[in-house]
Design goal:
Layout: H1 2-24, H2 27-43, H3 54-73, H4 92-111, H5 114-125, H6 130-137, H7 141-161
Helix pairs in contact: 1-2, 1-3, 2-3, 3-6, 5-7, 6-7
Length: 188
């Protein structure tokens, strides 16, 4: 049982890190939170019920550890959310556009209240059901549904309110230097 539990934990590490990033907004804090969650799980593996989902149990442990940490810190943040899965593409422009969009979505997610951000990550990214999310967060299913609805609406509004990114940033002209021949306007 112990070996199976460790293998399952290893497979869940990327999801735990992503959830940790959602909670903390910091790669360093997320890594520490994942480590503390794994330690707690290994210390208390006897508390896992056979019918419980390991991921939901670990999300609950992680959330509780983060709440305890916030109480101790009185909500101080260190660095920005800057770690996510690499964006892969064949076209350099598509990769750049994808990274810009991902950065905008991450920024908009960070601006959401933590309750909405947490529910969005658990339901939309990690695929937990409303019931599982309610169990992880210790809230009623109706609250999950309302936070999810408000979170989706807020995220949509924030993304639509952002100015569209300019695909190419022109190089600024140095003062006193004439424009390059291709930059000059041809007068007829």
């Amino acid at each position: 049982m112990e070996t199976d539990l460790r293998k399952a934990l290893t497979l869940l590490l990327p999801r735990l890190r992503r959830f940790g990033l959602t909670l903390t907004g910091s790669a360093n804090d997320a890594d520490e939170l994942v480590q503390n969650t794994c330690e707690r799980m290994l210390q208390r593996s006897d508390q896992l019920r056979e019918h419980a989902r390991l991921d939901a149990w670990l999300y609950g442990i992680m959330r509780n550890l983060w709440i305890d940490e916030l109480r101790h810190r009185k909500v101080r943040r260190h660095d920005d959310l800057d770690a996510a899965a690499a964006v892969v593409g064949e076209d350099g422009q598509a990769v750049a556009d994808g990274r810009i969009t991902l950065a905008a979505v991450r920024q908009a997610m960070q601006e959401l209240p933590m309750e909405q951000r947490t529910v969005l990550m658990l339901v939309c990214v990690d695929g937990l059901s409303y019931r599982q999310t309610a169990e992880v967060l210790g809230i009623p299913i109706g609250t999950v549904m309302s936070r999810l609805s408000r979170g989706r609406q807020d995220l949509h509004e924030r993304m639509n309110a952002r100015p569209a990114a300019t695909p190419v940033t022109p190089f600024p002209q140095r003062p006193g230097r004439p424009a390059a021949p291709q930059d000059r306007v041809r007068r007829v």
